Amino acid sequence: MKKDSGTPRAKTAIILAAGKGTRMNSPLPKVLHPVAGRPMIANVIEACQSAGITDIRVIVGHGQSLVKAVVEPLGVQCFSQVQQLGTADAVRAAQIDSIEGDVIILNGDHPLLEASDLKHFFKTFHDEKLDLAVVTAVLKNPKEFGRIIRHQGSLKAIVEARDASSETLKIREVNTGVYICQSDVLKDYLPKIQNKNIKGEYYLTDLISLAIEDHCKVAPILGSAKVALGVNTQQELAHAARLVYRRKARELMETGVLMLDPLTVYIEPSVVVSSGTVIHPNVHLKGSTQVGSFTVIEPNCFIVDTQIGESVQIRANSYLEKCLIKNKASIGPFARLRPETEIGEGAHVGNFVEMKKVKFGDGAKAGHLTYLGDAEIGRETNIGCGTITCNYALDKRKYKTKIGERVFVGSDSQFVAPVEVGDDAVIASGSTITENVPARALAVARGKQYTKPNYNKK
Length: 458
Ligand code: UD1
Ligand code: MG
Description:
Distance between the termini: 108 Å
Structural class: alpha/beta
Radius of gyration: 30 Å
Bound molecules: uridine-diphosphate-N-acetylglucosamine, magnesium ion
Number of domains: 2
CATH architecture of the largest domain: Alpha-Beta Complex
Number of strands: 37
Largest sheet: 23 strands, parallel
Strand content: 25-35%
CATH class of the largest domain: Alpha Beta
C-alpha cells in the first residue's frame, strides 16, 4: 500500500445506519431514538464534524425517508443500501470510488463516541503509518461482539460471535465496529469479500483478514469500552442516555457547578451552566439553555431553550420554554413560562403563574395565580393575585395588553385585550378592564356592593 506522507490527507466518514434495529421493538428507526435529547445518530455525526471531517456519508435503508429528513439538514450525504446484505455491502453503497484519503467507518447506533476519540484514532493510525486499523475494546461481557483474534500479539482476524467456537468466545477483546483505513484499502478489498458465513452476509470484518493476507499494515487500536457501546434495545438506549447525562454532570462539576445529586440531573450536552450555580435533584436542562452564575435551580424544573441570567432563583416544579430570565429574577415554585417570555431584572413570578409572549419589566411582580398572554408589563408594576389577560378573542386572534410602569393591579382583575393602562395607574380589585386607563388614573370596573341588613332571619 502506497502512502503519500507530509500533506494532511482528506478524511471521510461512513456511518452505517441501514439496519432495522429489530430488538428496539419500536416503529421509529433505531438511529433516530434520542439519547439525551438528540437522535443518537446526530451524536455520531457531531463527533465526526467536531473531529474535522467534512465528507460524511450515511448509509440508510430501513425507515430511510425519516432518517434522511433528520440527518440531511445536519450537512451529510445519504446513500441508500437497497437490501441489508451485511456491513461490507453497506460500505459499498457509499460510492467508495469517489473517496480519496482516509476513511473512518462507524456505526450510527454508537452514541457515546466523541470527537476526542476519533482524533485519537486518526493520530494513532497516522503515527503508526497503518493501512487499516480496527478499534477494539476489552469488555467484561463481550456478548455478541466480533472477537479479535491475535497470533503472537499481532492481529489476525475478526470472528463473529455466531461463527465462533466456544474457545474463541472466551476472548474478551472485541471489534467495536470502528475502522480507519486508506480509501485504497476499501477499493482493493471490499469487492473481494464473500458471504460464506452462517448468516450469508457480507461481513466488513473480512476486510481485516484480506488486507493482512496481502501484507498490508493492519493493527488494532485499543479504545475504551464506551466506544463499543452500541444501542440495540430500549434498556441499552436508557443506559447510553444515563452515561451521557453523567458525563455532562461530571464536566459541569469540574467547572464549579454545584449539584446536590448528580445522578438525578438530566442536562443535555448542548447546555451551558456557569460556575457557582446550584442544581437540585431531578432538574432537566435541555437544548440551547444557558444558565449564568450563582443561580439556583430547585427540584423538578423542566427548562428548554431558555436563557437564564446570574443570581436567578428558579423554584421547584417550574416549566420554562424558550424564554429569557434576566439577573436576580425569581421564578416559581410552580411557574409556567411559555415561549417568547422575557422576565426583567429582579422581577418576581410566583406560584401558579402562567405567561406566554410577555415582556415583564424589571422589578415587576406577579406573585400568585395569574395568566398573562401577549402582554407588556412595565417596570415595578404589581400584578395582583388572580389577574388574567383575556388575549384570545372569538375571531381566533390574539390581542395585546399593555400595562405601564409602577401600575398597581388589584387582585382578580381581567384585561380584555386590546387594552392599555398608563404609568402609575391603579386598577381596583375585581375590575374587568375593557377601556384604556390613562396614566395615574384609578379605574374601578366592578358591580357596586349592595348590602341588605338582617337578611338572614335565623
Ligand atoms: C458488527 C460487527 C462486529 C462488531 C459489532 C460492533 C460485522 C460483520 N460485525 O456486528 O464484529 O463487534 O458490529 O457493534 O460487521 N448495517 C447496515 N447494513 C447492513 C447491515 C448492517 O447499514 O446490511 C448497519 C447497522 O444498521 C448497524 C451496523 O451496520 O448500524 C452494524 O450492524 P449490525 O447488524 O448491528 O452488526 P453486528 O452484528 O452488531
Ligand atoms: Mg450491532
